[in-house]
Each structure stands twice: as C-alpha cells, then as structure tokens.
Amino acid sequence: MKLVKSLLLGSAAGLIAVGGAQAADLPVKAKAVEYVKICSLYGAGFYYIPGTDTCIKLGGYLRAEVALNTNSDINWQSSGNNGARNRLTNYYTMRAREDLNIDTRTATEYGVVRTFFDGVFSWTTGNYNGTGSAFGTTAYSSTLALNTSGATPALVGSSINPTDGGTSGGSLGVYYAFIQFAGFTMGKAVSQFDAPWTNYPGNNFDGLAGGSGTVTGINQFTYTADFGQGVTASFSAEDATAYMQAGNLNLSGATGLAGVTGAAYGSNAIGGSRSPNLVGMVRVDQAWGLFQASVAAHDNHVAYYGATEATGHPDDKWGWAVQLALSIKNIPTGAGDVINISGVYTDGATRYNFQNLAGSSFALYGSSNVAYASVGAASAPDTVYVTGGQQETVKTWGFRGAYTHNWDPYWNTAIYGSYAQAQFGSGAKTFLCGPGGLISGVAGVTSCSPDFALGTVGVITRWTPVKNLTFSADLSWTRLDQKYAGVVTTTAINGPAAKPIASYELRDQDSVVMLLRAQRNW
Prior knowledge:
The protein is mainly β.
C-alpha cells in the first residue's frame, strides 16, 4: 500500500512540475500595438508620432531639369566663361534633385512649438571652366601647370565635374532649419523682407532682379505679432554674411580697362560683420490677396585701405532698403488666376534688389561689326570708396511681377518680367568717368557711366496631367543695358579664358535661356 501511495504522489508531483513548466512556456499577452493616428490639428498630412503628442508631416519633391544656353543651373550667361560664350563653356546644364522637408508641431500651454527642416540632395552638371589649348592640352579647370622639371606641361588635379565631386557624388543643401515658438522664429528661414513668392512671382527661372529673394533661407531671430484679421508684423535680426553683401569696393584697386571689362571696379574690402541686418515687415492677408511692406537696414563695414592696420579705414556706413508687394487673387480672367507684383528701392543695400541668385556683377561678350567682338560689363556693389576717403553708397531701384492664367485644371501660363537699375554717386563717376578718369581716359571711349539697368521678360507654360506631377517650359530673355560706348583696345583681359587682346566694342548684351523641368511633389 505504501508503495502504491508513493507512486501516486510521485506521479502527481511530476504532473504538477510538467504543468508548471508548460505554463511558463505559454506566451505572455502582448501590449496593444500603437497605430499611427491622423493629427487633424494642423491640416492634412499630419500624423501623431506614436507614443507622443507631437504631430509630424513629411513632404518634398523630386525634380529633373535642363537649362539650355547657359553654364549655370540658376542663371543666364552673366559672367566668367559663361559670359564669354565661346568653346570653353557648357551650353546646357542638367540637374536632378530630391527635396525632403520635415514639419513637427506640439501643442503646449505657451502655444504651438514647431520645427521645420528642408534639405535637398542634388546632382548638377559641373561648371566647365576651360583654360584653352595652351601646350596642346585642354583643362577642365584652371589647373594647367608645369611639372617639377619645368619643361613638360601636365594637368594637375583636374576634374571632369569639380562642382559635385565625381560620378557618384552630388551635393547636399540645407534650405530651412528653424524653430517657431511663442511668436519667435529662430534659425534658417526665408527673410522677413521677402515677398511671399520670393524670386518667383510666376516663373521657375531663378535669376530675376528687381527685388529680394532668400529662397534657400537666411539665419535669423524674428518676432512676429499677429493682430488678427490677417494682419501680422515682424521684426528680425538676420545674418548678412551669406547672401546680403554685394561688396564694398576700393576703386583705387581697379586695374584699368581690363578690370572694368571683367566687371571689377576695384578690390573688394568687406570687413568682418559687425551687425546683422535689421528687418521690419507688416503684412495683410485677405481673401482678395495680400499686401506687404518691408524695410531693412544694412551695415557696410570695411577693412583697411592697405595691408596693415596702420593704413586706416573708412567709417561704417549704414544702407537701407524698402519694398512693397501686392498679390491680387480672384480676378475676372479665371479661377485661380493671380497677379503678383513688387517694387524695391535700396541705398547701400544692393542685395535687396539684385538678389543673390541674380548676381550683381556682369560681363558678357558678343559679336561686333566694327571690332573683334563686343562686351557689356556692369557691377553694383553696396558701396565704393577710394584710399583715404569715405564710403559712397550705390542706389538701386527695381520691380518684378507676373500674371498667371489657368486655361483649365491641367494647363496654366504665366508671363513675367523684372527691371532693375543701379546708380552710382558723384565720387565714383568722377573717379571712373571724369576728366582723365579711369575709363573716360581710355582711347576710344565715347560715352562713360557706371550706371546700368538689367531687364528680363519671360513666359512659362505648365502641364499637370495628374495631381502633383508637373511638366514646364520656361523661356526668358535678359538684357544688360550698360552705359559705356566706343571701341577700345585692351591691354589685358581680366575674366574669361581665351579672349585675346584685341579691339572690343562697348555695348549692351542679351541672353536667352530655356528651362525645361519635370517635378513630382509628394
């Protein structure tokens, strides 16, 4: 009996042990999966980041484009080898680009905390800067040199695509990276001075003068007050060093006619930045469109007259700019049609008119019936001076605008244009064009003035066969209206390669660019 009882107890204990082991092996009930939820607080496309109260939206585009008749992906044939318009420049530029932006927003007791990042990954045709056929060899950049023996020519460090770094290379750009909180914007964003459409009242072409345009963002600390009814006002301190300095030129460093035909009126002597640009803006947004007024102050801080501190320096001189912008919507010509226009005046703050992508120095060559070739050159710095003297501001004014008409939901066309003029002061005109001046004293010069104008007109047609996929063709014509005249013989060429010392006719120049683009937004 004892034996039977022992066997039963042992069997029961074994079963309990086995049952416990099996229970231990059973799966534990998993936590509920946190599905991504739609965030409807800030518009379409936002979702809650799982486990947080922060909403996020991803966006961007992929773009493929080609610019014809230019060695630049953003501009016309304005200067350098591109402006030479000879065999040492590309006549098209191709680009592929992916844009990625990340927008996050969190509601707090102080208001919404927002962060925004916009980066671009680009592959662009490298700028071709040939040096000609010296020694029977052509270089892709200015790297032709003698080897250590001093006898045999060799290419040193030349690159087929020096801009983007090679066949598997490319470039990364950070357009915007900022925080917004309690009315403050801190980081890299579009300047508060700019019109909402920046460089693009209706176009794709980047190079319009006639207004400001920090399309790739500018570092800033800004406070914006919202008064309701669509009325806002902003005050901003913005970094001037990257995009807003057109130059402070010492005319005493000019190299005569060779420098001027290369759009170099002297040596650039910008000193270290001492103050950000100060910007104020008032804007009214309504159903009919918007109106915006902007002002800016720009400190022109110059280095020394010479190579050492003992040579002295000019005093700082503040420049300023003012801009008005107007957008008119719901016009009778059709649903979605819009007119965007803006006008600007600057005094010692040239970049608010000749914006960074448009440039402010130009040297363009063409044909001539009375000389070897023709050349048109112009430059619009912020200020000029001579050694021992004070800064004199350059004044500019301009406007730009566009009218966009929608033919139907799939097609639209815009006509656009811009005009900008630069005017130098009496000191600069006397130095360059007075009796015995740097330019007026050159044999063959019949008319002399550093003033100039730059105008562009264009037309663009867009086709959107399916939502967020657009094909466009943008044709623009730019004219440099410079104020020099005559036929001169150069002693040197300061600028593009392969231009010989010869007779050149001083006259206006034209450039036509076609920009073809396919873009998929997402």
